[in-house]
Amino acid sequence: MNLILALLITWTPLITDATENVGLDIKEVYYNISDENLNVKVEFSNFFKDEFTSCSTWIDTDRNRGTGVLINDIGADYYILVYYWMEDETLTTHADLYRYSEGWNFVQSLDVHDTQNGFWYSIPCDLLKSSEIYLVFKTWHMGEEDFAPNSGNVSISLPQLEVWNIYDSNDNGKIEDDELIDAIMDWLNGKLSDLELINVILKWLTS
Asked: Distance (Å, rounded) from C-alpha 176 to C-alpha 96?
């Protein structure tokens, strides 16, 4: 069923990586944006999975290498870890989202699906709070690493968010009182228009 889902999605090429003699070698990366989700598919030239293997997606949402954790040339403030875990004698695939704020903090688990040569996962675009993101992919297996791209980064444009998403600092889909105050302070300082503040207030009223 997961293979059928992957075939039904129209994938856009993002990275083609040269073959390298490493533990888990990234071959190609694709993406798709549908139903307010960012879908990412990673394929490997030598795909295998075990409990000593992982693949991470490092994401810079503010496009500032001075914030978050430096990897290649981006300052990653989110990362997605795809890993494999033995459950009831079955090796299962997992994907977890983390956000950087004085260290890495777990946000939530994501939908992830196996494919013939790798996996694909989905993440709601509004979790990333950005109209454009920079990405770097990295695998790990028994101390061996592979980066894609090997240097620099790739970018993806995301759908424009409603303003209130920017102030939803705890990612609960609501605007709390302190988050509303942050928006009001930005409005008072000329960083937010009247209509943008109204968008935040309306979300606060329904939260």
From this structure: 25
Q: Which helix (H) or strand (E) is 6 found in, with range?
A: helix 2-8
The structure tokens listed for 180 are 């509303």
Helix (H, G, I), strand (E, B) or coil at 129: coil
Domains in the chain (CATH in brackets) are 2-157 (2.60.40.1190), 164-205 (no CATH)
pLDDT in tens, 153-179: 999 999 877 889 888 888 788 999 999
Query: 87: which strand partners?
Result: 90
- Bridge pairing between strands 37-44 and 154-157: unpaired
Cα within 13 Å of Cα(68), Cβ side: 23
- Torsions phi, psi for 124 (to 5 deg): -60, 130
Q: How remote is the C-alpha of 150 from its chain's centroid?
A: 19
Q: Dihedrals φ, ψ of 21, to 5°?
A: -85, 75
| Run of H or E including 48 | none
pLDDT tens-digit readout, 64-98: 999 999 999 999 999 999 999 988 888 999 999 99
